[in-house]
Structure formats: structure tokens, C-alpha cells
Amino acid sequence: MPSLPNTAPLTNPVDQEHWRDRLDRLVDRWTTAPALQRWASSSILTRWLVRRRAERLFGVMAGFVHSQVLLGCVRLKLLEAVHASPRTPAQLAQLTGMTEAGLDRLLDSAVSIGLLERRSGGRLGLGPLGAPVVVHQGIRDMVEHNATLYQDLADPLALLRQPGDTRMNRLWPYSQTPQPDAAAEPAPANPSTGGADVFAHYSDLMGNSQRFVIDELLASYPFADHRHVLDVGGGLGGWVTALGQAHPHLALSLFDLPPVARLAAQASARNGLGDRLKVHGGSFIDDELPTGADLVTLLRVAHDHDDDTVRRLLRAIHRCLPMGGSLLLAEPMAGPQGEPTPTAPYYHFYLMAMGPGRLRTPEALTGLMQEAGFTHIEPVPNPMPIHARLLVGRKTRQTVPSSETPAGVTFS
After folding, report:
1. pLDDT score at 179
2. Rounded to whole angstroms, how far apart are CA atoms 274 and 371?
3. Which phi and psi (to 5°) does residue 379 adopt?
4. Does residue 351 lie within any of the structural domains?
């Protein structure tokens, strides 16, 4: 039987220990003492706090089940059904082909977590958390997409020890990770056709989920100050299309891998942008970016790649910009100065399963931008920094001194 790791507490000399460390250790002893737990649970003054913590912990333990309840509702289209008209459990069972006994458990669970709510006559309608799922196709797509992530997370320690070969990584057409051999378990069937279909499927998924970031950008940044915007890694062009519609004066360019660029050109013709949008195919790792834009946007691209790739990309963006040009970067970020955020656990494991990318703090991204030559880097406040935080940097010189050390930036 393997021996347990040494769990003896680490000790530091008192003269090197901060007073806050001693206080925290004392609080840890209090909060884990059985006698204090019994007293806090029975006291009218502290019972509410114990209960709230217990409910939060139970929510953490039950989180996977909650996500599966959401997945069941999405796959059965229950939320769309009750949005059209509140329905009884019997009507929903008939509509979905499920037995009433089985469906009742799903419905009751969906009510408990706010996806559905009970209406008059025993009917069910949309709950407060079900409404945005109905409104946004991107949420429903990501719920289905996350089903693959959860398979990779069945053994989280295995993923942490060897993150390379995952189902999620095999879904990602941009992956540079070597593919598994023929004996490995096959990737999920969607997408399974290979070629351009893989890029189309993934680009559709990212485009549908991009709507949240698009709304944040349009509400937060003064695009009227620019004349020509280049979107790098722009997928099928959902962002540049929305930007062009909101700001008719802008000339637009999009750069992505050749299979994606061809799809984006077809989408552009359908969206009526005409000659305003120039689509360029290439690899930002190996090819130079097109010039002419005074603003480059980078939406949810850097976090998919390792630091070396991001450095090369940011330097390429710096080279393609004129003096005075700007880079607007938008992506999920860890909390400034290590501040905990509710979205960080999801993105940490999602990006690990996807490939070499990682969740970075605004300070880390600022450092990478400064290494590439950008100056005057600052955060752009946005209304809901859940799906993305924003950074803007400017090109005020042509080259970066090799000895330069990035300066600190304060974030809030």
C-alpha cells in the first residue's frame, strides 16, 4: 500500500512570519474545530453563515450534476418548448418522447436551479436562468460543446499530469498538438468529416458564442476614432460584420487560416459588406499580416496559444501597424493581481483540455504586449467582464530595445 504524503504543517521562524500568517493559521484552527462547528450551527447568531457555506459547498459538489441537467434541457429543447407556451409535464413528455417518470426528475431539477419555473395549472415556464439560454444560440452550442470537456475532466488529475491528448484538443482544428495514433480512442463524431468542415463547425461554434464579446466591445471602445480595422483570427467574420454595421465609415480586413478565410469570404458576400471587407488567408505564425489598418482587434485568440506563439503574433501585429496605430485585445482573463474570479476554474481547465493555451492575468498580457513593442497599454472598462476583459496598446515606435523591461500597469 503506498504511503501517504507527509502532511505535517510547514513551520517558519517566527521572525520571518508575517502577522497575517499567524492570524490566518489561528482562524483555520477555529473554523475546523468540531466544537466550534457545533456551536456555530446551533447559535442563532451564526447559524445563517454555517448554512450559507454548507449550501455553497454542496453547490460545488453538485456542479457537474447541474451542468448535466442543463445539457438534458438543451438536448430535449425543453426551454424552447416552454418559451413557446407553458406546458404540463405530460405535454412535455409527449413532445420529447420521454417517460413522465424519467422526465419529472429532470423537470424538478431544472426548476430547482432556475432553468424552469412552475406556472398555474401545473404547467412549467421559463425560469430566470432559462431565458438567456433560449435567447442565445451560443450558450446552447457551448453547453453541447462542454459535454466533450466533461469527458476529459472525468479524471482531472490525469488531465493535469498529461494535458496533451484530449477529446477537446482533437476537436480543435488550429491545434499543433500531434494527433493520437490509430489505436487511441476516436474523437467525438462532431465534427468528423475533416477538411474544411472541421473549420466550419468550429468557426460556427466560436462565432455563435462570440456575441457576448461583440456586445461588450461595441459598448466599450470608441471605434469612431479609427478608419480601418484588421481582425486577426477573425473566424467567419461575425465580429467584423457587427462592427461594420455599427460603424459604416470603417474599412475592414480579416485574417485567418486559408480554409477559414475562404468561408469568411463567402459569409461576407452574404452579409452585404461588399468591398468594405478584405479577407486574407495565412498563418500568423509564419506569414506577415496585411498592412493598412490603424486598429487591430484580437478576440479570444491569445489564450489559445503558448507564450512563444503569442509573442510572435503580437510582434507581427506591431509590425503591420502604422505609427500611432493600436491593438485592442479581448479575451477571458484571470483576476488582476491574482484576485479570484468565478470564471477562472472553467477557463483554466477548458484551455488545458484544448491545447497549449492558458488563462493569463491582465498584467501578464500587458507584459507580452510591451515585449512586442506596444506602449500606453491600459485596460478598457467593459460592463460585464465575464466572457472577456479588454486591453488596448499603441505603437509609438518602430523597434523594441532588447534590454527593455516591461513597466508595471495598475488594474482594477
Report:
1. 38
2. 37
3. -75, 150
4. yes
Q: Is the CB of residue 73 less than 8 Å from the CB of residue 106?
A: yes
In angstroms, rounded to a whole number, what is the distance separating the alpha carbons of residues 42 and 35?
11
Closest CA to 229 of 157, 176, 161, 277: 277
Angle at 29 between CA 24 and CA 35, to 5 degrees: 145
CA 350 vs. chain centroid, Å, equals: 8
Do 356 and 224 lie in a common domain? yes
Would you say 150 and 67 are in contact if contact means Cβ atoms under 8 Å apart? yes
Please provide the DSSP assignment of 284-322 as one string. TTTSPPP---SEEEEES-GGGS-HHHHHHHHHHHHHHSP
* Residue 4 pLDDT: 46
304 lies in a domain? yes
Cell 449550501 sits on residue: 55
Domain match, 209 and 110 both: no
- Structural domain that includes position 131: 63-135
Q: State how many domains the chain has.
A: 2
Q: What kind and span of H or E run contains 81?
A: helix 78-84
Q: pLDDT tens-digit profile of 37-78?
A: 777 778 887 787 878 888 888 888 999 999 999 999 999 999
Counts for the chain of helices (H) and strands (E), in that order: 18, 9
Could you list the beta-strand ranges (E) of 186-322.
228-232, 251-256, 277-281, 295-299
Count CA atoms closer than 13 A to 386's CA, side-chain side.
Answer: 8
- pLDDT-derived band at 322 (thresholds 50, 70, 90) equals very high
- Would residue 40 count as lying in a domain? no
Are 70 and 133 within 8 A, CB to CB? yes
Q: Which of 88, 110, 135 is where one domain is finished?
A: 135
Cβ contacts of 109 within 8 Å, gap of 6 or more: 65, 69
pLDDT tens-digit profile of 245-264? Answer: 999 999 999 999 999 999 88
What pLDDT is attached to residue 191? 37
Q: What are phi and psi of 72, to 5 degrees?
A: -60, -40
Q: Let me know if residue 295 belongs to a domain.
A: yes
Q: Are residues 295 and 381 in the same domain?
A: yes
Distance of CA 32 to the CA centre of its chain: 35
How many residues are present in the chain? 412
- CATH number, domain at 82? 1.10.10.10
Helix, coil or strand: residue 232? strand
